[in-house]
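$ run holo --ligand "WTA" --emit C-alpha cells
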Amino acid sequence: MEKPPKWYDAHLDEYRKVAYINSRAQYDEMYRQSLENPDAFWGPLAKEYLSWYRDWDRVLDYDFVEGRIEWFGGGKLNASYNCLDRHLEDKADKVAYYFEGDDPGMSRSVTYRELYEEVNKVAAWLVAQGIKKGDRVVIYLPMIIQLPVAMLACARIGAIHSVVFGGFSAESLASRIEDSHPRILITSDGGFRAGKVVSLKKNADEALKLSEWEVEKVLVYRHAGNGVEWDAGREVWWHEAIAQDGLPDYVEPEPMDAEDPLFILYTSGSTGKPKGVLHTTAGYLLYGAVSTRWVFDIKDDEVFWCTADIGWVTGHTYIVYGPLTCGLTTVLFEGVPSYPAYDRFWAVVEKYKVAKFYTAPTAIRAIAREGDELAHKHDTSCLKLLGTVGEPINPEAWRWYYHHIGRDWCPIMDTWWQTETGGHMITPLPAVAPIKPGSCSFPFFGVEPVVLDADTGRPVEFANQEGALFIKKPWPGMARTVYGDHERFKETYFSKMPGMYFTGDGAKQDEDGYWWIIGRIDDVINVSGHRLGTAEIESALVLHEDVAEAAVVGFPHALKGQGIYAFVSVKPNIATTEALKKDLVALVRKEIGPIATPDLIQWADALPKTRSGKIMRRLLSKIAAGAVTDPEAVEKGVLGDVSTITDPEVLRPLILGRLSLNS
Ligand code: WTA
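-- output --
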C-alpha cells in the first residue's frame, strides 16, 4: 500500500495569495511579538476589532500564581453593541444567521438589523423585570435564533448569561440553577431533534421543582408547539412579553468594564460537580473575533458554518461572539447530521454556499460510516476550508474528510482549545505551513505552551516526548475564575505547577515543531467531543440503592472517540442482572443526560485501591481498553507496578470479567 504523505500542502499557494497571515515568516514574527510584547500586539487589534466607550489604562496585568488575569483594565465596552449596533451603519441588511431547522423545510434568514431589533425587545423586557448588571440569567433553549438573541439581550444590559445545553437533563439544569442563582430562566416549549420533539419546558419545570433556588420569571419561546404546563404567576410567553405595551424599542447598551463578566458556562472537571467557568468581556470578545478571522481566514462575503451546539463553548465563540463581532454571515442549525439522512450537512453546505465549515471528528466518523455516495450527492465545491474541534482526529476520519469533502485540497484546521481558553490555542493557519493529519500544528498568538515531564515537572528534553501540557502566559480569551469559587480556579489550573496554566491534556511536540494532543490526563473523558467528569457519572451510579461503589473510565470507541465504561460493585445479596444494568443506564441519563449514557457496565466484586482508598483508575482504564487479556497479568508484571494496591488479587476477576463482556 502506498504510504500516505507526511503532510499536506496543496492549498498553500492559493492561500498565500489571499490569507490574512500569508507566510511562515509572518507568523513567526507575529508570534514572537505576541509573546515578547503582548501590549504592542493586542492593543492595536483591540482598537481594530472592537468599539470602546473608554480606552483601557493597561493592556495586561496578571499574577498566574493567584490566577488573577486582567486584560484591557479600565477600558469600557459592550458586547451586544460590538456584535450588533456598530454593524448597522454598513451591514444592516447583511444576513447574520441563516437558520436551518431540524426539518429541512424550516429555514429563515435573519439580518443584522432584525437581530438587533429582536435583541432590543428582549433586553427591554428584561429591564422591565428589574434585571440589571451582574444578575444571572439561565438560558435553556434549542438551536434557534432566540438563543443568540437571549444571550445578546443579557450582554446588552450587563446581565451574565449561563447557557445550559438543551441535551442536559432536568437534574443537570437544576444543579446549574442552584449554583448560579439566576433571577430569570429562558426556555422554549420544545425543540426538534431528528424529527422528534424534545420537551425542554417539561425539563425546565422539573428542574425548578428540584432546585432550592427560586427564579422570579420564566420566559418561554413557542417553537415546537407541544403542549406545556403553565404557571401564570411565574411564566410568560416570549411573543407576549416583547409585545407588551410601553416597552421601548431601544435599550442603551450598558458600558461594561473590560473585566466585567460576560457569561458563565459549566464544564466538567476531575472532581465534584461541573464548574461555572467565567469569561469576561473584552479579552474574550477580542480573542474570539481575531481567531475566527485568522484561523478560518474568513472574508466578509463568505458564509461560515460551525455545527456545534451553542450550549458548548464552541458555539459561544464560533457561532455567536466571534462571527458577530466580525460582522459575518453564519449558519445556525437546529438538527443533527443524520436527519433526514446522513447527507444533511452537505445539503446545507450546498444550500447556503458555505465556504468555511467547522465540525467535530465524531460527526465525521458517523457520516463516513454511511458510505461515500452521500457525500457526493451535493455540490460542495463552495467549500474552501474545513475545521475540526473537540477531540484528536484519527487518521481515517481525517483522510475521509480531506478527500471526500475537501476534494484533496481544502486545508483542515485541527483546532485544540477548551471551555476555559475561550478560543483556539493550538491550530494551523491556512497559509502558514503544510498540515500534518492529527497535529494541531502551532500555537495561536500569545499562547506559549510547554510540555512538562509528569515525573520530574521539568520541560521535556526530546522531540516526541509526551508529557503534561501547560501554558506559560495569559492570553486574552482565557477564563478568569470559577463562578463563586476562585479557590477552585486556582487549585484546578494554577496549583499543579505554580505560575502556569494546567490544561489537563497530554501533548508532545515533534521533530518539526508541530504539536500533537494526546488526550486528557486527568479524570475527564471526551465522549463524542463532549467533556464529562468520571466523578459525575460515578456520583449518578451510586445514587442507586443497590450500588455500593462505582468507578468510571473512558475506553476507545470507534464512533465516539471515547466510550464510557463503568465498573460497578453492588451491595451484599443484590443480584447482578441485566435489568439492574438497564436501571443504571436510565439513572445516569436522568441525572446528567443522554450524552453520559454508559456504553458498558461490568460488575466488580471489588475495585483496585491504594492504601489511602483511592481507586486506581489507571489500571481500570487498561482493563477497559481491552489492553490486558491475560488473567495472570498481575503476576507477570504486565500491569506495571501494582505494589501500591492493597489487594492486587482483585484485578484477576476484573480482567476475566472484561473478556466475557466481549464475547
Ligand atoms: C479536547 C472544546 C485534540 C481536549 C473546545 C480538551 C481536543 C477538551 C481538540 C476541551 C483537538 C479539544 N485535538 N483534543 N483539536 N479540541 N480537545 O472544554 O482534551 O468541551 O482539553 O472545549 O477537548 O473540551 P471543551
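-- notes --
Residues 528-662 form a domain with the GMP Synthetase; Chain A, domain 3 fold (CATH 3.30.300.30).
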